[in-house]
Design brief:
It contains 18 helices and no strands. The chain has helices spanning 2-52, 59-73, 76-112, 118-150, 154-177, 182-206, 219-253, 256-276, 280-292, 297-334, 341-357, 359-367, 371-396, 398-422, 428-436, 439-452, 461-482, 486-498. The longest helix has 51 residues, at 2-52.
Protein backbone atom coordinates (compact mmCIF):
# COMPACT_ATOMS: atom_id res chain seq x y z
CA UNK A 1 0.00 0.00 0.00
CA UNK A 2 2.87 2.38 0.81
CA UNK A 3 4.24 1.98 -2.70
CA UNK A 4 0.72 2.43 -4.10
CA UNK A 5 0.34 5.69 -2.17
CA UNK A 6 3.60 6.99 -3.63
CA UNK A 7 2.42 6.14 -7.15
CA UNK A 8 -0.92 7.82 -6.45
CA UNK A 9 0.84 11.01 -5.29
CA UNK A 10 3.03 11.06 -8.42
CA UNK A 11 -0.02 10.56 -10.65
CA UNK A 12 -1.80 13.37 -8.77
CA UNK A 13 1.06 15.78 -9.49
CA UNK A 14 1.10 14.73 -13.15
CA UNK A 15 -2.67 15.23 -13.35
CA UNK A 16 -2.46 18.75 -11.88
CA UNK A 17 0.29 19.80 -14.28
CA UNK A 18 -1.32 18.23 -17.36
CA UNK A 19 -4.74 19.58 -16.36
CA UNK A 20 -3.47 23.14 -16.03
CA UNK A 21 -1.50 22.98 -19.29
CA UNK A 22 -4.48 21.53 -21.19
CA UNK A 23 -6.78 24.15 -19.69
CA UNK A 24 -4.46 26.98 -20.72
CA UNK A 25 -4.28 25.63 -24.29
CA UNK A 26 -7.94 24.64 -24.55
CA UNK A 27 -9.63 27.76 -23.14
CA UNK A 28 -8.64 30.20 -25.96
CA UNK A 29 -9.87 27.70 -28.57
CA UNK A 30 -13.16 27.24 -26.74
CA UNK A 31 -13.64 31.01 -26.34
CA UNK A 32 -12.94 31.60 -30.03
CA UNK A 33 -15.56 29.01 -31.00
CA UNK A 34 -18.21 30.01 -28.48
CA UNK A 35 -17.72 33.73 -27.91
CA UNK A 36 -18.18 35.51 -24.59
CA UNK A 37 -21.97 35.19 -24.38
CA UNK A 38 -22.13 31.47 -25.20
CA UNK A 39 -19.22 30.68 -22.87
CA UNK A 40 -20.96 32.70 -20.16
CA UNK A 41 -24.12 30.59 -20.56
CA UNK A 42 -22.04 27.39 -20.41
CA UNK A 43 -20.36 28.60 -17.18
CA UNK A 44 -23.76 29.59 -15.77
CA UNK A 45 -25.18 26.08 -16.27
CA UNK A 46 -22.13 24.58 -14.55
CA UNK A 47 -22.62 26.94 -11.60
CA UNK A 48 -26.27 25.93 -11.17
CA UNK A 49 -25.37 22.25 -11.42
CA UNK A 50 -22.74 22.67 -8.69
CA UNK A 51 -25.47 23.81 -6.30
CA UNK A 52 -27.68 20.81 -7.05
CA UNK A 53 -24.75 18.49 -6.30
CA UNK A 54 -24.98 19.75 -2.70
CA UNK A 55 -27.82 17.23 -2.31
CA UNK A 56 -25.02 14.71 -1.73
CA UNK A 57 -25.19 16.03 1.88
CA UNK A 58 -21.65 14.83 2.58
CA UNK A 59 -22.65 11.16 2.37
CA UNK A 60 -19.69 10.36 0.08
CA UNK A 61 -17.32 10.57 3.05
CA UNK A 62 -19.71 8.44 5.10
CA UNK A 63 -19.63 5.68 2.43
CA UNK A 64 -15.84 5.59 2.75
CA UNK A 65 -15.87 5.66 6.55
CA UNK A 66 -18.44 2.91 7.11
CA UNK A 67 -17.06 0.62 4.42
CA UNK A 68 -13.61 0.95 5.99
CA UNK A 69 -15.06 0.35 9.46
CA UNK A 70 -16.83 -2.86 8.47
CA UNK A 71 -13.80 -4.12 6.54
CA UNK A 72 -11.60 -3.70 9.62
CA UNK A 73 -14.25 -5.46 11.74
CA UNK A 74 -14.59 -8.15 9.03
CA UNK A 75 -18.33 -7.62 9.16
CA UNK A 76 -19.21 -8.60 5.59
CA UNK A 77 -22.95 -8.74 6.19
CA UNK A 78 -22.91 -5.28 7.76
CA UNK A 79 -21.00 -3.92 4.77
CA UNK A 80 -23.50 -5.45 2.31
CA UNK A 81 -26.41 -3.88 4.21
CA UNK A 82 -24.82 -0.44 4.58
CA UNK A 83 -23.98 -0.35 0.86
CA UNK A 84 -27.54 -1.35 0.05
CA UNK A 85 -28.77 1.48 2.28
CA UNK A 86 -26.40 3.97 0.68
CA UNK A 87 -27.35 2.90 -2.86
CA UNK A 88 -31.06 3.26 -1.99
CA UNK A 89 -30.31 6.66 -0.49
CA UNK A 90 -28.41 7.81 -3.58
CA UNK A 91 -31.19 6.60 -5.89
CA UNK A 92 -33.61 8.74 -3.85
CA UNK A 93 -31.18 11.69 -4.04
CA UNK A 94 -30.95 11.19 -7.80
CA UNK A 95 -34.74 11.36 -8.07
CA UNK A 96 -34.88 14.46 -5.83
CA UNK A 97 -32.15 16.14 -7.90
CA UNK A 98 -34.19 15.50 -11.04
CA UNK A 99 -37.29 17.06 -9.44
CA UNK A 100 -35.28 20.07 -8.23
CA UNK A 101 -33.70 20.38 -11.68
CA UNK A 102 -37.09 20.33 -13.42
CA UNK A 103 -38.41 23.04 -11.06
CA UNK A 104 -35.35 25.21 -11.83
CA UNK A 105 -35.75 24.48 -15.56
CA UNK A 106 -39.29 25.86 -15.65
CA UNK A 107 -38.29 28.96 -13.66
CA UNK A 108 -35.06 29.90 -15.46
CA UNK A 109 -36.93 32.34 -17.69
CA UNK A 110 -38.36 34.22 -14.72
CA UNK A 111 -35.06 34.30 -12.82
CA UNK A 112 -32.88 35.45 -15.76
CA UNK A 113 -35.40 37.57 -17.71
CA UNK A 114 -33.84 40.90 -16.66
CA UNK A 115 -30.33 40.12 -17.90
CA UNK A 116 -30.63 37.43 -20.62
CA UNK A 117 -32.40 37.59 -23.96
CA UNK A 118 -35.14 35.09 -24.87
CA UNK A 119 -32.72 33.25 -27.18
CA UNK A 120 -30.07 33.06 -24.40
CA UNK A 121 -32.66 31.75 -21.94
CA UNK A 122 -33.75 29.03 -24.40
CA UNK A 123 -30.14 27.95 -25.00
CA UNK A 124 -29.50 27.87 -21.26
CA UNK A 125 -32.61 25.70 -20.75
CA UNK A 126 -31.48 23.28 -23.49
CA UNK A 127 -28.10 22.79 -21.81
CA UNK A 128 -29.65 22.54 -18.37
CA UNK A 129 -32.07 19.84 -19.52
CA UNK A 130 -29.12 17.60 -20.41
CA UNK A 131 -27.38 18.56 -17.18
CA UNK A 132 -30.42 17.33 -15.20
CA UNK A 133 -29.95 13.85 -16.69
CA UNK A 134 -26.23 14.00 -15.83
CA UNK A 135 -26.93 14.95 -12.21
CA UNK A 136 -29.68 12.36 -11.59
CA UNK A 137 -27.46 9.53 -12.85
CA UNK A 138 -24.30 10.83 -11.17
CA UNK A 139 -25.72 10.39 -7.67
CA UNK A 140 -26.22 6.57 -7.73
CA UNK A 141 -22.98 6.13 -9.69
CA UNK A 142 -20.93 8.19 -7.22
CA UNK A 143 -21.26 5.59 -4.44
CA UNK A 144 -19.00 3.24 -6.39
CA UNK A 145 -16.14 5.74 -6.48
CA UNK A 146 -16.41 6.08 -2.69
CA UNK A 147 -16.37 2.30 -2.25
CA UNK A 148 -13.20 2.07 -4.38
CA UNK A 149 -11.63 4.75 -2.16
CA UNK A 150 -12.56 2.78 0.96
CA UNK A 151 -10.64 -0.17 -0.52
CA UNK A 152 -7.64 2.18 -0.88
CA UNK A 153 -7.33 1.58 -4.62
CA UNK A 154 -5.73 5.00 -4.96
CA UNK A 155 -3.71 4.23 -8.09
CA UNK A 156 -6.86 3.20 -9.99
CA UNK A 157 -8.71 6.32 -8.81
CA UNK A 158 -5.86 8.63 -9.81
CA UNK A 159 -5.53 6.97 -13.22
CA UNK A 160 -9.26 7.51 -13.80
CA UNK A 161 -8.85 11.16 -12.77
CA UNK A 162 -5.90 11.50 -15.16
CA UNK A 163 -7.96 10.02 -18.00
CA UNK A 164 -10.80 12.40 -17.16
CA UNK A 165 -8.36 15.33 -17.23
CA UNK A 166 -7.08 14.38 -20.69
CA UNK A 167 -10.16 12.94 -22.40
CA UNK A 168 -12.83 15.42 -21.30
CA UNK A 169 -11.16 18.41 -23.04
CA UNK A 170 -10.40 16.16 -26.04
CA UNK A 171 -14.12 15.37 -26.34
CA UNK A 172 -15.01 19.06 -25.99
CA UNK A 173 -12.54 20.02 -28.75
CA UNK A 174 -13.91 17.27 -31.03
CA UNK A 175 -17.47 18.49 -30.44
CA UNK A 176 -16.49 22.07 -31.29
CA UNK A 177 -14.55 21.03 -34.39
CA UNK A 178 -17.65 19.26 -35.69
CA UNK A 179 -19.58 22.52 -35.43
CA UNK A 180 -21.51 21.98 -32.21
CA UNK A 181 -21.48 24.67 -29.55
CA UNK A 182 -22.14 24.77 -25.81
CA UNK A 183 -25.10 22.37 -26.04
CA UNK A 184 -22.92 19.75 -27.76
CA UNK A 185 -20.27 20.22 -25.05
CA UNK A 186 -22.80 19.52 -22.30
CA UNK A 187 -24.03 16.38 -24.12
CA UNK A 188 -20.45 15.15 -24.68
CA UNK A 189 -19.51 15.76 -21.05
CA UNK A 190 -22.65 13.96 -19.83
CA UNK A 191 -22.04 10.85 -21.93
CA UNK A 192 -18.38 10.77 -20.88
CA UNK A 193 -19.20 11.09 -17.15
CA UNK A 194 -21.78 8.30 -17.34
CA UNK A 195 -19.31 5.99 -19.12
CA UNK A 196 -16.63 6.60 -16.45
CA UNK A 197 -19.24 5.95 -13.77
CA UNK A 198 -20.12 2.61 -15.40
CA UNK A 199 -16.40 1.72 -15.49
CA UNK A 200 -16.34 2.18 -11.70
CA UNK A 201 -19.43 -0.03 -11.35
CA UNK A 202 -17.75 -2.82 -13.36
CA UNK A 203 -14.54 -2.43 -11.34
CA UNK A 204 -16.44 -2.77 -8.06
CA UNK A 205 -18.34 -5.91 -9.04
CA UNK A 206 -15.65 -7.66 -11.11
CA UNK A 207 -12.42 -6.70 -9.29
CA UNK A 208 -13.51 -5.87 -5.76
CA UNK A 209 -16.25 -8.55 -5.75
CA UNK A 210 -18.71 -6.07 -4.25
CA UNK A 211 -21.93 -7.47 -2.85
CA UNK A 212 -24.96 -5.36 -1.97
CA UNK A 213 -27.89 -6.35 0.23
CA UNK A 214 -31.11 -4.33 0.35
CA UNK A 215 -32.38 -4.76 3.89
CA UNK A 216 -34.14 -1.46 4.53
CA UNK A 217 -32.99 1.56 6.52
CA UNK A 218 -31.32 1.14 9.91
CA UNK A 219 -32.67 4.31 11.57
CA UNK A 220 -30.04 4.40 14.32
CA UNK A 221 -27.20 3.93 11.84
CA UNK A 222 -28.69 6.50 9.49
CA UNK A 223 -28.89 9.04 12.34
CA UNK A 224 -25.24 8.36 13.18
CA UNK A 225 -24.23 8.76 9.52
CA UNK A 226 -26.22 11.95 9.13
CA UNK A 227 -24.63 13.47 12.24
CA UNK A 228 -21.18 12.60 10.88
CA UNK A 229 -21.94 14.03 7.43
CA UNK A 230 -23.73 17.22 8.44
CA UNK A 231 -20.70 19.44 9.00
CA UNK A 232 -19.04 18.15 5.84
CA UNK A 233 -22.28 19.13 4.07
CA UNK A 234 -22.27 22.54 5.78
CA UNK A 235 -18.75 23.26 4.58
CA UNK A 236 -19.71 22.11 1.07
CA UNK A 237 -22.64 24.55 1.06
CA UNK A 238 -20.34 27.37 2.12
CA UNK A 239 -17.81 26.44 -0.56
CA UNK A 240 -20.41 26.43 -3.33
CA UNK A 241 -21.91 29.72 -2.18
CA UNK A 242 -18.45 31.22 -2.06
CA UNK A 243 -17.20 30.14 -5.46
CA UNK A 244 -20.34 29.70 -7.59
CA UNK A 245 -22.68 32.45 -6.42
CA UNK A 246 -20.88 35.29 -8.21
CA UNK A 247 -21.63 33.91 -11.67
CA UNK A 248 -25.30 33.45 -10.75
CA UNK A 249 -25.44 37.01 -9.41
CA UNK A 250 -23.89 38.30 -12.65
CA UNK A 251 -26.48 36.31 -14.65
CA UNK A 252 -29.36 37.81 -12.67
CA UNK A 253 -28.20 41.44 -12.57
CA UNK A 254 -25.84 41.96 -15.55
CA UNK A 255 -25.78 39.45 -18.43
CA UNK A 256 -23.94 36.61 -20.16
CA UNK A 257 -20.73 38.30 -21.41
CA UNK A 258 -19.50 39.47 -17.95
CA UNK A 259 -19.91 35.87 -16.72
CA UNK A 260 -17.28 34.79 -19.27
CA UNK A 261 -14.84 37.47 -18.03
CA UNK A 262 -15.39 36.37 -14.44
CA UNK A 263 -15.12 32.67 -15.31
CA UNK A 264 -11.68 33.19 -16.93
CA UNK A 265 -10.54 35.20 -13.89
CA UNK A 266 -11.74 32.44 -11.55
CA UNK A 267 -9.80 29.93 -13.63
CA UNK A 268 -6.52 31.63 -12.65
CA UNK A 269 -7.60 31.48 -9.02
CA UNK A 270 -8.16 27.73 -9.43
CA UNK A 271 -4.66 27.29 -10.91
CA UNK A 272 -3.27 29.32 -8.01
CA UNK A 273 -4.93 27.09 -5.41
CA UNK A 274 -4.03 23.77 -7.06
CA UNK A 275 -0.35 24.66 -7.46
CA UNK A 276 0.06 26.34 -4.07
CA UNK A 277 -1.47 23.50 -2.05
CA UNK A 278 0.39 20.66 -3.76
CA UNK A 279 2.84 20.12 -0.85
CA UNK A 280 0.24 19.95 1.92
CA UNK A 281 -0.34 16.19 1.75
CA UNK A 282 3.38 15.52 2.29
CA UNK A 283 3.11 16.88 5.85
CA UNK A 284 -0.38 15.66 6.67
CA UNK A 285 0.51 12.29 8.34
CA UNK A 286 3.01 13.91 10.71
CA UNK A 287 0.57 16.67 11.66
CA UNK A 288 -2.29 14.22 12.25
CA UNK A 289 -0.08 12.04 14.46
CA UNK A 290 0.98 15.02 16.58
CA UNK A 291 -2.62 16.09 17.15
CA UNK A 292 -3.79 12.55 17.92
CA UNK A 293 -1.18 11.91 20.62
CA UNK A 294 -1.75 15.42 22.02
CA UNK A 295 1.84 16.58 21.80
CA UNK A 296 2.94 19.96 23.20
CA UNK A 297 1.08 22.86 21.54
CA UNK A 298 4.38 24.68 21.01
CA UNK A 299 5.72 21.75 18.99
CA UNK A 300 2.50 21.70 16.97
CA UNK A 301 2.74 25.45 16.35
CA UNK A 302 6.34 25.14 15.16
CA UNK A 303 5.35 22.47 12.65
CA UNK A 304 2.37 24.50 11.40
CA UNK A 305 4.69 27.49 11.01
CA UNK A 306 7.25 25.46 9.06
CA UNK A 307 4.55 24.28 6.69
CA UNK A 308 3.01 27.75 6.46
CA UNK A 309 6.35 29.29 5.42
CA UNK A 310 6.88 26.69 2.69
CA UNK A 311 3.35 27.31 1.41
CA UNK A 312 4.09 31.04 1.46
CA UNK A 313 7.14 30.60 -0.78
CA UNK A 314 5.09 28.75 -3.38
CA UNK A 315 2.07 31.06 -3.41
CA UNK A 316 4.10 34.30 -3.24
CA UNK A 317 6.23 33.13 -6.17
CA UNK A 318 3.11 32.43 -8.27
CA UNK A 319 1.26 35.57 -7.15
CA UNK A 320 4.14 38.03 -7.67
CA UNK A 321 4.93 36.46 -11.04
CA UNK A 322 1.28 36.82 -12.07
CA UNK A 323 1.16 40.47 -10.94
CA UNK A 324 4.22 41.19 -13.10
CA UNK A 325 3.23 39.42 -16.34
CA UNK A 326 -0.36 38.24 -15.85
CA UNK A 327 -1.93 40.95 -17.99
CA UNK A 328 0.45 40.34 -20.90
CA UNK A 329 -0.15 36.60 -20.66
CA UNK A 330 -3.95 36.99 -20.65
CA UNK A 331 -3.89 39.29 -23.69
CA UNK A 332 -1.63 36.83 -25.54
CA UNK A 333 -3.72 33.88 -24.32
CA UNK A 334 -7.35 34.88 -24.90
CA UNK A 335 -7.15 38.35 -26.48
CA UNK A 336 -7.38 42.03 -25.56
CA UNK A 337 -11.10 41.73 -24.83
CA UNK A 338 -10.29 39.73 -21.69
CA UNK A 339 -7.55 42.03 -20.32
CA UNK A 340 -9.77 43.09 -17.40
CA UNK A 341 -9.59 39.49 -16.14
CA UNK A 342 -6.15 40.47 -14.81
CA UNK A 343 -7.60 42.88 -12.24
CA UNK A 344 -10.37 40.50 -11.12
CA UNK A 345 -7.91 37.59 -10.85
CA UNK A 346 -5.55 39.60 -8.60
CA UNK A 347 -8.43 40.63 -6.34
CA UNK A 348 -9.50 36.97 -6.00
CA UNK A 349 -5.97 35.58 -5.59
CA UNK A 350 -4.51 37.94 -3.00
CA UNK A 351 -6.78 37.04 -0.05
CA UNK A 352 -6.27 33.34 -0.88
CA UNK A 353 -2.66 33.68 0.33
CA UNK A 354 -3.94 33.81 3.92
CA UNK A 355 -5.95 30.62 3.38
CA UNK A 356 -3.14 28.79 1.61
CA UNK A 357 -0.45 29.39 4.23
CA UNK A 358 -2.85 28.14 6.93
CA UNK A 359 -4.29 25.27 4.88
CA UNK A 360 -3.28 22.58 7.39
CA UNK A 361 -4.95 24.39 10.27
CA UNK A 362 -8.25 23.08 8.88
CA UNK A 363 -6.89 19.51 8.88
CA UNK A 364 -5.73 20.03 12.45
CA UNK A 365 -9.27 21.02 13.49
CA UNK A 366 -10.70 17.86 11.90
CA UNK A 367 -8.13 15.75 13.76
CA UNK A 368 -9.22 17.47 16.99
CA UNK A 369 -12.91 17.05 16.06
CA UNK A 370 -13.35 20.81 16.37
CA UNK A 371 -14.23 21.57 12.74
CA UNK A 372 -17.88 22.45 13.29
CA UNK A 373 -17.10 26.03 14.37
CA UNK A 374 -14.98 26.55 11.25
CA UNK A 375 -17.94 25.30 9.16
CA UNK A 376 -20.23 27.84 10.87
CA UNK A 377 -17.71 30.64 10.25
CA UNK A 378 -17.29 29.66 6.60
CA UNK A 379 -21.05 29.54 6.00
CA UNK A 380 -21.63 32.91 7.72
CA UNK A 381 -18.92 34.59 5.65
CA UNK A 382 -20.29 33.00 2.47
CA UNK A 383 -23.67 34.63 3.16
CA UNK A 384 -21.94 37.98 3.78
CA UNK A 385 -20.13 37.48 0.46
CA UNK A 386 -23.47 37.10 -1.36
CA UNK A 387 -24.90 40.26 0.22
CA UNK A 388 -21.79 42.31 -0.59
CA UNK A 389 -21.69 40.98 -4.16
CA UNK A 390 -25.37 41.81 -4.78
CA UNK A 391 -24.79 45.39 -3.59
CA UNK A 392 -21.54 45.88 -5.54
CA UNK A 393 -22.42 44.05 -8.79
CA UNK A 394 -25.08 46.56 -9.75
CA UNK A 395 -22.50 49.33 -10.03
CA UNK A 396 -19.22 47.51 -10.71
CA UNK A 397 -20.37 44.27 -12.41
CA UNK A 398 -17.74 41.48 -12.20
CA UNK A 399 -15.31 43.71 -10.31
CA UNK A 400 -17.96 44.21 -7.63
CA UNK A 401 -18.42 40.46 -7.22
CA UNK A 402 -14.66 39.99 -6.91
CA UNK A 403 -14.39 42.72 -4.27
CA UNK A 404 -17.25 41.18 -2.28
CA UNK A 405 -15.59 37.76 -2.43
CA UNK A 406 -12.20 39.18 -1.42
CA UNK A 407 -13.65 41.05 1.57
CA UNK A 408 -15.39 37.84 2.64
CA UNK A 409 -12.13 35.86 2.44
CA UNK A 410 -10.28 38.43 4.56
CA UNK A 411 -13.04 38.41 7.21
CA UNK A 412 -12.95 34.58 7.14
CA UNK A 413 -9.17 34.58 7.74
CA UNK A 414 -9.48 37.02 10.66
CA UNK A 415 -12.35 35.05 12.26
CA UNK A 416 -10.46 31.76 11.94
CA UNK A 417 -7.32 33.22 13.52
CA UNK A 418 -9.36 34.54 16.45
CA UNK A 419 -10.75 31.01 16.87
CA UNK A 420 -7.26 29.46 16.65
CA UNK A 421 -5.90 31.86 19.28
CA UNK A 422 -8.66 32.07 21.87
CA UNK A 423 -10.38 28.66 21.58
CA UNK A 424 -7.68 26.28 20.30
CA UNK A 425 -5.04 28.22 22.29
CA UNK A 426 -2.42 28.34 19.52
CA UNK A 427 0.38 30.92 19.47
CA UNK A 428 -0.90 32.77 16.40
CA UNK A 429 1.43 35.72 17.03
CA UNK A 430 4.44 33.39 16.64
CA UNK A 431 3.03 32.12 13.33
CA UNK A 432 2.40 35.54 11.80
CA UNK A 433 5.68 37.06 13.00
CA UNK A 434 7.47 34.28 11.11
CA UNK A 435 5.39 34.97 7.99
CA UNK A 436 5.78 38.77 8.17
CA UNK A 437 9.57 38.38 8.06
CA UNK A 438 9.12 37.19 4.47
CA UNK A 439 7.32 40.34 3.30
CA UNK A 440 10.59 42.31 2.83
CA UNK A 441 12.27 39.75 0.50
CA UNK A 442 8.95 39.45 -1.36
CA UNK A 443 8.87 43.23 -1.89
CA UNK A 444 12.49 43.24 -3.07
CA UNK A 445 11.74 40.39 -5.48
CA UNK A 446 8.80 42.32 -6.89
CA UNK A 447 10.93 45.46 -7.30
CA UNK A 448 13.74 43.61 -9.09
CA UNK A 449 11.20 41.74 -11.24
CA UNK A 450 9.56 45.05 -12.20
CA UNK A 451 12.95 46.46 -13.25
CA UNK A 452 13.68 43.27 -15.22
CA UNK A 453 10.49 43.81 -17.25
CA UNK A 454 12.28 46.59 -19.14
CA UNK A 455 14.55 43.95 -20.69
CA UNK A 456 11.66 42.15 -22.39
CA UNK A 457 8.94 42.88 -24.92
CA UNK A 458 6.27 40.52 -23.63
CA UNK A 459 4.32 39.94 -26.83
CA UNK A 460 4.95 36.19 -27.27
CA UNK A 461 4.89 33.06 -25.13
CA UNK A 462 8.67 32.71 -25.59
CA UNK A 463 9.39 36.19 -24.21
CA UNK A 464 7.01 35.56 -21.27
CA UNK A 465 8.77 32.23 -20.61
CA UNK A 466 12.21 33.87 -20.74
CA UNK A 467 11.09 36.51 -18.24
CA UNK A 468 9.67 33.71 -16.06
CA UNK A 469 13.07 32.00 -15.98
CA UNK A 470 14.83 35.25 -15.02
CA UNK A 471 12.18 36.00 -12.37
CA UNK A 472 12.63 32.49 -10.92
CA UNK A 473 16.38 33.07 -10.58
CA UNK A 474 15.81 36.47 -8.94
CA UNK A 475 13.23 35.02 -6.54
CA UNK A 476 15.47 32.14 -5.50
CA UNK A 477 18.58 34.29 -4.94
CA UNK A 478 16.72 36.93 -2.88
CA UNK A 479 14.98 34.35 -0.69
CA UNK A 480 18.13 32.25 -0.26
CA UNK A 481 19.90 35.34 1.11
CA UNK A 482 17.05 36.99 3.02
CA UNK A 483 14.18 34.51 3.42
CA UNK A 484 15.03 30.81 3.81
CA UNK A 485 16.07 29.64 7.29
CA UNK A 486 18.43 26.72 7.96
CA UNK A 487 15.62 24.14 7.91
CA UNK A 488 14.31 25.38 4.57
CA UNK A 489 17.77 25.45 3.00
CA UNK A 490 18.30 21.93 4.29
CA UNK A 491 15.11 20.52 2.73
CA UNK A 492 15.94 22.26 -0.57
CA UNK A 493 19.43 20.71 -0.63
CA UNK A 494 17.89 17.36 0.32
CA UNK A 495 15.34 17.64 -2.49
CA UNK A 496 18.05 18.39 -5.03
CA UNK A 497 20.51 15.74 -3.85
CA UNK A 498 18.05 12.92 -3.08
CA UNK A 499 14.97 13.87 -5.10
CA UNK A 500 12.77 14.09 -2.04
CA UNK A 501 12.02 16.27 0.97
CA UNK A 502 12.82 14.85 4.38
CA UNK A 503 10.52 15.88 7.12
Amino acid sequence: MKNGMKKAVIITYITIIIGNVISLMYTPFMLSKLGKAEYGLFSLVNSIVAYIYLLDLGFGNAVIRYNSKYMVEKNEDGRKKVNGMFLSLYLILGLISMIVGVIIYFNLGKIMSKSLSLDEINRTKQMFMVAIVNISLSFPLSIFNSIITAHEKFVYIKIINLLRTILNPAIMITVLLFGSRAFGMVVGSTVFNILLGLVNVIYCFKILKLKIKFAGFDKALFAEIFNYSFFVFLSAIAYQIYWNSDQLILAIFVGAAPIAIYAVSSQFNTYFLSLSNVLSSMFLPKLTKMVTVEENRNDLMRLLTKIGRIQYYICSYIFVGFVLVGKQFIVRWVGQGYSFCYVIAIILMFPQIFSIIQSLFATMLEAMNKHRVKAYIYLSIAIINILLSIVLVQKYQGLGCAIGTAIGMIINAVANNIYYKFVIKLDIKYFWMNILKLVIPTSITFGLGFLALSLFSLTSYISILMFGILFTIIYFIVFWIMGFNKYEKKIFISAVSKGRIKQ
